[in-house]
């Protein structure tokens, strides 16, 4: 059986760092532990960076912490390949 695919909205990622007991953290964990396949794009990764760095103090994270989180997300993306879905619905696998 293939793994579920999920797009993690920026608000979900931010909420995951606000509380480790909610559904957002569970989604983050499933993606991080490779239980689900992350659907990412460069645009979404840049949005993650913009929002997390803007709210770093409220999340009790340093800019360095956020860089490490983003690097880990990008590392997972490059090791596993990224599934990018176009607006037309075609799927493209990237190494």
Task: Describe the secondary-structure layout.
Elements (H helix, E strand, L loop, with lengths): L4 E2 L3 H9 L4 H10 L4 E2 L3 H13 L8 H18 L1 E4 L5 E4 L1
Parallel strand pairs: 1-2
Antiparallel strand pairs: 3-4
Explain what you see.
The chain has helices at 10-18, 23-32, 42-54, 63-80, and strands at residues 5-6, 37-38, 82-85, 91-94. The chain is an alpha+beta fold and 95 residues long. It has one domain (5-82). The strands form two sheets. The chain has a two-stranded parallel ribbon. It has a two-stranded antiparallel sheet with strand order 3-4. α1 crosses α2.
What is the succession of H and E elements?
EHHEHHEE
How many separate structural domains? Answer: 1
Helix share bin: 40-55%
Tell me the fraction of residues in β-strands, as a range.
5-15%
- What does the overall shape look like? globular
Averaged pLDDT = 80
Number of beta-strand segments: 4
Structural class: alpha+beta
Report the biggest beta sheet as strand number plus sense, adding barrel if it closes: 2 strands, parallel
How much is the radius of gyration in Å?
A: 13 Å
Distance between the termini: 22 Å
Task: Please work out how many helical segments DSSP would assign.
Answer: 4
- Biggest sheet strand order reads 1-2
The stretches of 5 or more residues where confidence is low (pLDDT under 50) are 81-95
Please supply descriptive tags for the structure shown above.
95 residues, 53% helix, two-stranded parallel ribbon, 4 helices, alpha+beta, disordered C terminus, two-stranded antiparallel ribbon
């Amino acid at each position: 059986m293939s793994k579920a695919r999920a797009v993690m909205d920026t608000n979900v990622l931010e909420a995951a760092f606000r509380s480790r007991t909610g559904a957002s953290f569970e989604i983050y964990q499933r993606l991080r532990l490779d239980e689900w396949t992350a659907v990412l794009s460069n645009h979404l990764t840049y949005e993650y960076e913009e929002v997390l760095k803007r709210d770093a103090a409220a999340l009790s994270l340093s800019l360095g912490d956020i860089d490490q989180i983003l690097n880990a997300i990008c590392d997972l993306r490059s090791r596993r390949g990224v599934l990018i879905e176009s607006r037309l619905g075609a799927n493209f696998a990237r190494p």
